[in-house]
Every structure is written in structure tokens, then in C-alpha cells.
Amino acid sequence: MQGKSADMVEFIYAFFPVVVLFISILGVFDSTIRSILALPVAVIIPYQIGDFIFRKTKFQDIVEKSDVATRVILEWVSGMLVLFSLVLFLSAFPFWSSAFFYIIIILMPIILLRKSDTYNKSVAKNITLNVNKLRSYWKVLPPIIIGSISAWFTFAHQVSPLVQSPNANDVRYTLWLTDGGTFFIGAGQTPFYILMIALISKSCQSHPMFVFHIAPLLQYIAYTVGIYLLSHSLTGNMWASILASAYAVSVSVNALNNFGPKPLLVSLFPSLLYISIEEGKYYKNNDRHYIGHFILVTLLSFLVSIILLLQPYFLPIQLRNIIVLLFTGVAFVVPILIKDTDLKRIFYVIFAFSLVTSIIHVFESPLVIAMFLFCLFFSYTPFQRLMTIAICGVTLLFVIAQLTGFISFSNNFMFSRWLWGSLYDSSWFNMNALQKWQWIYNSFHPYIFYLSIMGCILSFLGSKKGKNVYALIALFAVQLFILFLPEGHLWRVRDYMEPIVSVFSALALFELFNWFTTLKIKIKVRKICIGINLNNKAVSLIFLLLGILLIPYALQPRLTFMKTQMKMNPDGYFSFDLPYEYEAAKWIYNNYPKQWVRTLWWSESFEGVEKEIISIHSPTLRGIRYIEVPLTRDTLIISDPYTMWLLEGLTGRDDAIDERVFIYENEYSLEAIHQMENVYQLFLDMIKTSFLEEERRICLKVYGNPVLHFNGQSYIRFNDFPELNPSAGITIEALVKLDTLNPMNEIVSKELGYAGYYLYVDSFGKAHFGFNGGKAEICSHTSILPGFFYHIVGTYDKNQSLLMLYINGILDTNSSTSETISYAHSDLSIGSFLLWGNESLHPLNGSIAYIRIYNVALNLTEINWNIENPYNPIGRSLVLWIDGWSIKGSNCRNKAQCDHDGIVFMVETRKLEEKSEQFLYHTLCEKINSIRRAHSKVLIVLSERTSTWLSSGGSTKFVLFPFRGIDSSYLRALNSLKCLKLVYSIKERIYIYEVQSCS
Fold first, then answer.
1. Residue 843: Cβ within 10 Å count
2. Separation of first and last alpha carbons in the chain
3. pTM score of the predicted model
4. Contact 582, 618 (CB under 8 A)
5. Nearest CA to 731 among 851, 903, 886, 868?
6. What is the maximum alpha-carbon separation in the chain?
7. For residues 882 and 873, what is the distance between their CA atoms, to the nearest angstrom?
8. If you count DSSP H runs as helices and E runs as strands, how many of each does the chain have, helices first?
9. How many CA atoms lie within 13 A of 711 on its CB side?
10. Within 13 Å of residue 800, how many CA atoms lie on the same side as its CB?
11. pLDDT above 50 for 791
């Protein structure tokens, strides 16, 4: 095989070990080794298999008569099919499936040294970058130095303290070694992560459905365009910029999946590098081919992102990995086949899509998009320079403000909250109108400013011909400044800068590689002269062997800490990552000495335990693996894993056999005896605490009365009558308990098309009240948990143009609207949404104590009156009132003054049993007193961080207590318990209670 395809294969052979060596030097094999192996799996191995098949079969003549492109395709596809079958078979055996990938690296030297006449031996002299003079190579030193310092700082100051925790042999580090390390605490700390991860993660908190299904597909394309422009402004090389954009967008996908983007990344580089080097000189002035290669990268990244986004819902992990490998191979084959007409067509589609993306994206990160648009439309005009100076000036002001402590960029008080809060307080801007778009300001993150200022500076400096090296020096200086920032100021900027630095370090590596492949070395020892010509094959073998030798060195620290527990250094690590938890742990340690707890881990595969836990119908405790909390005379019981983790580091205690184990959770208790390693005798008990306390308050006057029970097929329908169509205002009031959370749980619905009003609970437990098909809608902050009664009220006042939502007699959220209610004279349904012909959708599984509808907006005083007097409510403007006493056969009597009754379908009435105060305290107090008889001190620690991780969809492998977040109503309920005394709190983020006598 002669020509370009042979050159491409040779280049891949040469490039692969360079990546191995580079990553080995950086010391990040823990998160990249499988990605490196994906290159031979997806490209080299299938091609070699296919080549072997065709050379050993009767189809050899057919292939040899074909053109180069056809031969490459046939050989690669046939090899991929064989590999596909093998991986599919091995996927049924996890051990062998994993071993298969690691065996590849052992086979690579054999493959590289395999004799074949299909290789072009003179390819070394063809693989050269377009550099005219050797002295230009000194320009690659700044990015290499920057990348090395970044890697060293990451490993020395972030990875090492992590590994030195006393839990070095627990699940975290097993995952770190086997899953690639993308989810170890402080995810995204290696230089190979693109800074866009932060935006995706932050957006997940408030709008998960949008983020996981739509936003990433748009963002990846926007990022590709942005990184390309940023790189081009620095290097002035369009081909290098294409590679940088491919690198950036591929790595950014890693926010969603451990395995996916790295194979694409590693295989895109060789194929696209070959195109840029071999074909670029022929198409130097032909923008069509340049645009085509750029669009190809974007399109491939887009397709892979679709696979990564959809796989959790539709594909098993083995099949998804195979598909990702398939796309990786396509990146190797497609560039040979693409046609000019196709390029033009694809270009217009992607350009339009990217433009729309920029318009949408401007709401989340306006400065970033502004920078990209300036580069795109204004080139290096005086206007762009003026705007660059303006943006840099604004950014500098915020940097100074943060350094001086005037503005904090912490999770609790980001710049965006300060900005939007200022607008909210102003008289000319109504913040209420933006409540439904909370993801706008929730996603606003300080790294936007740092990315903007760096991009503008680089584009400004890079615009001057021949001055690119100054941009590199500026980048190096900024990086040095960031590296040595004191903790508590801008130290997080380092994390956001490292990916950019790594992109340019990778670009520099290509020039260094070119220098190596053409280098000739002569060694004279006395009269013996040895000449070494470092062609591709020799370089490949040398770098590959070096990379393999460096693997044990890179993994040695992890393996050591896996075997030996080491004390963590609180001042060196926890003080900058968990400041409030560290402060709480120090306070506990100083005030309650010699107490210790061990981190609790949850898993889904602990046999024998899950059945017992499911039997109590608790999704909270399903899948517990084991618990280790040795009880001493002074017992510490904590409901927050982070504080437990810190305390463990302060004491460094080991667990012991036969010690008793106890954990106090919000609703349940679990006690166990540690019999042997990972074996515990479990005792489960239910503890009802603040949820029952709150439920009792709102249901006190309803106990002993019948309530309506809906089984998922039940509903109540009222034919339309005029009083149900108010225009000046409306109140929908319901006392509801959900047994399960369906995708939509309809409470009241009078909708038809884009007309009418509704009240429902979504699959996340959020209550929604609105009208006109969602044009005016409000969503609760409080989650409606299954198994508890909640008093939910939605009001609309036309005069004030205001929607309000109340939960349990407390204003939960409000929003202004310019909409007015329109009607289509549809019927009203309760417990379901009815289409024509009584077809039922969005069923409710649970109980409704009462439903009331007013044609005015009730105020808070009136709402609380109705809670305290459920059978003597406010009578003015009441148009619908039903409860458990309304049902008579198939008729539902409207207890309001309106003479219109409803029709009942499969609704039952059940008596709601009273839960006395004595019952509320019984289980909790009895359990705590039984512990106190043996132990003098019992503490309960609650931390806001746990709820923050849960709401952001953080790593569920590490979140141990999926309990309700700390809100005002929850704290009031806790404080009402007489047996709990608040002894310490930190800035309304951590609360420590001491258990008092409950007798």
C-alpha cells in the first residue's frame, strides 16, 4: 500500500507513543490510560486486522485493484467488525473486558515491529511542519514550561493531599484507578480538562432537563468555534487552531462521561494532523478545504456528544463504548472521502447552528460570546481593540474587588447574585419577571471573566504579526501569578487556566515531535562512530518503551496509598476545599475530645441488606453497603459525611471488630455489629422526625376525617360553569399527599390548549402553578416528598400581575407576569388531566384532604386561617370546595355556594388517623435515650454542602445521605424538638445539635 494511506498509518504509529510519553511526564496516567489505549483499539488494531484478513484470503486481488481510499475503508471496516464482535462477547465478562484493553499496550511493540512491505519507509521526511527556520523552535518553550508547571502544581498540591487521606483504601480510590479518576473529589483538576465543565455542572442545579438534553449539544459547537478563534489569534495557524478546537471540544464532553471523549480526542489528532501537514501545503490558499476540515471536527464532536448524552437512557455501557470507538474510527476514515459540495452544504448548516447557539449562549456567558463574536466579525479592527480594553478593564475591577474582599465568588455569594440582586432592588428593573429563567444567573460563574480577559489579551497580542511569542510570555506570566496566589483569593483561577495552557502545550508538542523525527545523532567513542537516524519507526519504539516503563512510576503513588492509610493534613488540604466543614470539625474536636466517626459508603450491590431495607419502603436507605461508626463512651452521631470525613482525618482511628455501629438519619435509624471485614449484623428501625412534626401541624384539624384517595386511574370531573373562569384573580388550595412521584402528578387542571389554569407536582417533586399553557408559571423551591401531606396554594392577582406559591403556609416563591388568564370553556378535573372523551393523563397516586378554588387571590393571613380551620374556611369568593365528606356514590358535592356538583370515577375515601405529639416524639426520643444510657454525648451535625451536592447532581458515588436540604421550615421543625439543642452554627451553613434528655 503506497501513498497517503500508508503515510497516515505511519504517522499514527509515530504519534501514538509521543502522546504516551507526554502524558507519562505529566503524571496523569490515572485519568488517561484507557484513553491512550483507545487509539490502537479504534484505529491501528482494526486496520491491522483487516489488512491481515485481506492478505490471507482470496479477496486480496480485489483490494489491491482498488484505489487507496477504498482499500483503507474495506480493511478498517472489516477489522472493526471483528473487533466489534470480540468486544461484544467480552462485555459479558467484566474482568476480561477490562483486561482486553490493557493487553493492547503489551501488544503494541509487536505491532510496531511487524514486518510488512505496505509501509512507506521514506515517510519520515514527509512528516514535517511548515516551519522555515530552526530558530523558530525556541518559541515552543513557553507553552511547554507552562504546561509542565501546571501539571506539577496540580499533582503536588491537589492530587497528592487527596491521596494522603486516611481513606486511601476505600471506594474513592478504587474508582480513581478503574474509572479514570474523573470523579475523585475536586473533579477536573488535571490539565486535560477544559474549563467549560464548570458551566455544565452549575447549570445542572436549576435546570437539569435542559442541560442534559439540549444545552450540551449547543455548547460543544459554540466551544469549538470559540477555541478555534482563540487558538488562531495566538498561533496564526489555521490548521493548528482546528486541532486545538477538536482537542477542546472533545475534552469538554468529559463532564458527562468518563470514557467517551478521550478516544475521539486521541484519534482525531493523528488523522487531522496528517491532513493539515500533507494536504495543507497543496490547499494553502483554498479556504474550502480548510472550512471542511474545521466543520468535520465540529460535526464529529457533535455526533459523539449525542451518543454520550443518550447512552444513559437507551444504551448499555458496553454497547455505548463500542459506538464511541466506531465514531473514533470514522474520524480516521472520513477525511479521505469528503467532497467539496458536501463541505459547502455542511458548512452552512453548522454555521447557522453555531450562530443560533451563540445567541442562546449569550444569556449564560455574555463576555465569552462577546469575545468570540468580536474575533469573528471585527477581526483586528480598532473597534475590537477598544472593546478588548473595556472588557479587560471591567474584569480587572472585579479581580481587584475579589482580592480586597469586596466581592466574594463563593457558592453562596457569586458575582451574578450580586449583580442580579442589585438589579432586583432597583426601581427600573423588575427581577420577578426573570424568576422562571433562574438558570441564567445561577449559571453565571466567575471563570467567565478570566476566560474573557485571557482571550482578549491573546487576540490583542496575537494580532500583531510576528508577536505571537509575546502572547505566550504573557500567558506564562499570568500562569505564574496564579500559581502562587495565596489561598482564599484567586487560587481557583488556576484550575480554569490549566486547560487553556494545555491546549497550547499540545500544539507546541507537535513542533517538537517534528524536530525529533528529522534529527540525526552521531556518537563517537574513540574510533567508533555510531549514527542514529531517528525516523518514525525508531522514535515510535523508543517513546513507546519509555511510556511503558513510566506506567509503574506514574501509578506507584496511587498503589502505595491504596495499601497504606495515611493521615491527612487538614491545614494543607481541607482548609481550602471545605473551609466551613473544617471549621465545624475543629470545633467538635476541641469541645468533644476523643470522639470519632468513620465515613459511610453506599453501594447498590450489598447482598442480603437491600431486601431488608426495601421492606420498609425507604428509597433513602436502599443500597447501603456498610457503616462504620465505632461507639465509645462519648458517642458522636453525625448526619453529614463531609464533617465525618474531616473528623476522621483529625483522629486517624482504625475500625475494630465487635464494635457497635449506629447511624442516625432524618427518618430512619440503622444499628449494626461489626462481625468481620465488611460483614455487619443489621437492625433497622424507623424514626419519624421533623417531617411528621410539620405534617402534624397542617393536618391537625383533619385527623379523624375522611380524605380522598386516588389510585392512578381515579379522577373527579366538574363540567364547566362561569364561576370557574375568574379573570381578576384566582386561588387554588390543596392539602395533598403523594404516594409516588409520577412524571406529572396533576392536582387541579382546567386546561385546553393554551388556555386555562393548573396545579401539579413534577417528577422532581416541584410544585407548579400557572395558566395559559405555561406562558405564566411558577415553580416551587421546596420539594414535595412522597409519604407526607403538604398544603399547597397557588394565587394569581391581576391587579398586581403577580403569581405566588405557598407551601405549608409559607411563601415559597413568586413571579410577576404580564399574562391574563384565558379560557376555552373546558371541564375541571381533579387528580388527573382529562382529554376529550375522558382520556386520563398525568394521574395522581395519593390522597387529597381538600381542594378549594377562589376567584380572588387570598393573602397569607387567609391561607393560614384555612390551615387552622379546614372545615370553616374563608367564605368570600369561594367557588369550589370538596373534601372527603363530599363523595356520595358517583356524585361529588360542591360545598361552596355554587350549585354545581361533580362526577367521581374510582375515588375512595379513607379516614385519616391522628398522629399525636406523643407518637411524634416516641420513636426518636426512645432511640436517643437508649443510646444515652450507654453514652454521655450525642451530636447531630447538618451541613448545607450535602444538599448542594444533591441539587447539582454531583457524584452520587460520594453523596451518602440523600436527605432534604436545609431550609427555613426544616430548621424550624428541628428547633421545635425539645430534645435537641442548637449548640453551634456557622454562617447558616452548618448546624450542630446536642441531644438533650427526652424523658
1. 20
2. 89
3. 0.34
4. no
5. 851
6. 117
7. 12
8. 35, 29
9. 8
10. 16
11. yes
Angstrom distance (rounded) from CA 661 to CA 655: 10
Phi-psi region of 789 (alpha: psi -120 to 50; beta: other; left: phi over 0): beta
Query: Which whole number is the average pLDDT over 270-282?
Result: 36
SS3 letters across 556-618: HHHHHHHHCCCCCCCCCCHHHHCHHHHHHHHHHHHHCCCCCCCCCEECCCCCCCHHHHHCCCC
Residue identified by cell 363523595 is 887
CA-based torsion, 698, 700, 701, 706: positive or negative: positive
| Grid coordinates given for 219 | 455548547
Residue 225 φ/ψ region, left for φ over 0, alpha for ψ in the -120 to 50 degree band, beta for the rest? alpha
* Residue 588: exposure state from Cβ atoms within 10 A (0-12, 13-18, ≥19): buried
Give strand pairing partners of 624: 602
Q: Cα(665)–Cα(964) distance, rounded to whole angstroms? A: 11
Give the domain ranges of the chain.
4-409+446-517, 578-687+917-995, 704-911
Q: Measured between alpha carbons, how far is 634 from 932 in angstroms, rounded to an integer? A: 9
For domain 704-911, the question of CATH label 2.60.120.200 is answered with yes
Task: Give percent of the chain with pLDDT exceeding 90.
Answer: 9
Judged against a pLDDT cut of 80, whether residue 540 lies above it is answered with no
Q: Which of 23-32, 60-69, 130-139, 497-506 has the highest mean pLDDT?
A: 60-69
Report the candidate in 658, 689, 584 with the shortest Cα–Cα distance to residue 988.
584
Spatial distance between the Cα atoms of 83 and 87, rounded to a whole number of angstroms: 6
Which residue stretches of 236-316 are H helix?
238-252, 261-274, 287-314
CA 793, CA 895: separation in Å to the nearest integer?
19
Which one has a higher pLDDT value, 667 or 171? 667
Please determine, for residue 274, whether its predicted confidence score (pLDDT) is greater than 70: no
Which cell goes with 480? 505564574
- Backbone dihedral angles phi then psi of residue 219, each to the nearest 5 degrees: -65, -40
More confident residue, 930 or 59: 59
Residue 757: closest CA among 738, 739, 734, 731: 731
**103 vs 439, residue with greater confidence:** 103
Contact 979, 690 (CB under 8 A): no
Q: Which residue has the cell 488523522?
A: 271
Q: How far is CA 781 from CA 590, 609, 744, 796, in A?
A: 37, 34, 17, 18
pLDDT given at position 873: 92
Mean pLDDT check: name the lowest of 107-121, 558-572, 923-937, 981-995: 558-572
Distance between CA atoms of 559 and 168, rounded to whole angstroms? Answer: 10
Strand partners, 986: 990
Q: How far apart are CA 66 and CA 73, in angstroms?
A: 11
| Range scoring the smallest mean pLDDT among 139-148, 724-733, 777-786 | 139-148
